[in-house]
Structures are given as C-alpha cells and as structure tokens.
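chain below, 384 aa
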Amino acid sequence: MKKISILGSTGSIGTQTLDVIKNQNKDFNLIAISANKNYNKVIEIIREFSPSYIAITDEYAYNKIKNYCALNNETIEVFFGIKGLIKIATLDEVDLVVTSIVGMVGLIPTMEAIKKGKDIALANKETLVVGGDIVIKEAKKYNVNILPVDSEHGAIFQCLKNEDKLSIKNILLTASGGPFRGKNLEYLKSVTVEDALNHPKWNMGKKISIDSATLMNKGLEVIEAHHLFNVSYDNIEVLVHPESIVHSAIEYIDNSVIAQLAVTDMRLPIQYALNYPSRVPGIVSSLNLFEIGNLSFEKPDYETFKCLKLAFQSGKAGGLMPTILNAANEASVDLFLNRKIQFLDIGDIIEECLNVFENSYTIDIESILDIDNQVRNYITNKWC
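prediction:
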C-alpha cells in the first residue's frame, strides 16, 4: 500500500486526487494533507479518510481544525504554516508527496521532500518554473521520481515511456485556447473576472483559470517541460487544440509523432502518477472517437496573448528571469481577481517587471525568495 501526503488537498487537483484514492482504497493510504482556509472541507476529509497529520497555512482555519480535533477526540497532529507543510512533506512513513499547492509556496516543501527521498507527484507548476535547475539536480542526487500530474506533462511522460530522451525532436504542447480563443485585443479590454474564470473545458481553481485565459498557464508549462524533459525551448511548440482530447505529443527524430489522447478528466494523469510505474484500470470514461469526429489544431496568437511570448523569452533568458515572470504573474493575477486592474494589465505588468528587474544566474533558494519578494513589493507599491 502506497502512503500518500497531499499538499493542497482542498483545491481542484487535491479533491480529484482524493477521488482517485477513494476509488483505489486498497492501494493507497492517505497519511497527511494540507489546506489553506477551507476548514470545512478539511473536516470532511478527516471524516472520510482519517489522515494522521494535517498542515494548515491560515491561522483562523488552523484554530478551527485544532478545536474540531480536540472536541471530537481526534488523535491527529495539526501543524501550522510553512513549517507544517515541510513537516507533512518529509514524514518518514510517506512514500509519495502530491504537490498541488498553487503558487511558488510549494517550492520549499517540495525541495525538502526530495531531500528526504520522497517521490513527487507534481501539480505545482511554479516549483519548476522558479527552481527547475535546482529541483531537477536534487531529484537526481536523491534518486527521486518527479511524476508530472498536469495533463500535458503527464501525456508527454506517457509518450516517452521506454524511449530515449535523446530521440526527442520536438515536444508538442497542446492548449485549449482558454475562454478567449480567437478574440482580439479590443475585445479583451472589457472582459470581466467572471468572463476569464469561465473556462470552456476544464474545471479549475481561480488562479489557474486566469492563467489559462491569458495563456500564461501554457507559458509556465513550457518552462516546466524544458526542465522535466531536458528539451531546448526551440524544440517546444504550443498547439491550440480546442477539443482538449490530444493532451500533448512528442515528435521523434524519425519524424514519428506519438500522442496521448483521453477524455478531459484530470483524474487520469493523477491516477497514472499515483500508480507509477504500473497502469491500472481507469476510473474515467472511455474515449469515443466516433462521437468526437474531428480534432483541430491552430497556432497560438502570441501578440494578443503576450504572456505566452513573455514566458518563452523568460525561459530562454534563464537565471532568475522565470522567477521574476512568475512573481509578477502571481501578483498581477491577484490584483485582477480583486478587481484592481484590467485583464490586459496582467501582461503589461509582467512585461514591465521583466524590464525593470535585472537578471542573475545565481540560483538558490535564498536568491529566488529575495527576487520574488522584490517583485511583489514593487507591484504592491505601484498598483495597490
């Protein structure tokens, strides 16, 4: 029985991971979970899965869970803050850590888990975006598997099975196009938060939904793919694929293209990562190609959706530039969700930060956290 710790158990990926565990209850044992503010959901998880450890990052929610456990005689250890995340990521009894926290807050607990030899089911893009060089280096050092949970990287991971990475010619990273596919800049000037959250294919959290609307989500995935599969940015191509059936593909040096197809359901890449290296009977629907009929592919509009272009540029620049990109994106998306800026301001703010802050090729946790803090303070002081 594989013992699991979930960082970010109440979000979209976390709840779907719980569903996979519930459907394979003889194969998995949920040891620990973390959450931010959703203490009601945490209580539901306690009742259904009985984890032994919980980490809460919001103080009010932390006190709520502590009181619940005391009143109900629950013998659960409850931890607080970043130290709590590190604690449940490094437990001796845990085999696999699912990192589904949103944002770069996932970097430090993921790094600590790797140093403890824990395999990582990675759904936190930002960890590799800001720290890809050191994360991959540490994973090799401690012989840890980084198992991608994103549908796109999970697809590439499956297409690559039993193949030599040196035989990759190009990675073909698919994108749904988001809610504004085909729209122009004039249209995007007036879109609302509600418009941007209305993704046509995927049910996701607010931050990743906005990233999908700007195509920054795909930009972060490009940087992530570069690190995961050791492929040059010049050999990563984004294809807009509105049906979201081909989850990504690899073109090999013999010009063969191998793709992974499935229904639009995140539980499939989660199930594959949790069961790796085995493949088990699926809990998602079968793919009916007769019903789908046609699959289409388009080139992305890099000028209208400049966040994707900025991500490519930052990735190629290397050093701390992807950290600057990510910090500016997280801060500006938060401003947009709080209705303090317009949709197109997100890309403009990111571009300004990339020009204002000087790049450095000294990459360690301290330098990453320092430049991240500088960028967020710059945006707060200027736009709040």
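The first strand starts at residue 2 and ends at 7. The longest helix spans residues 365-383.
thats it, cya
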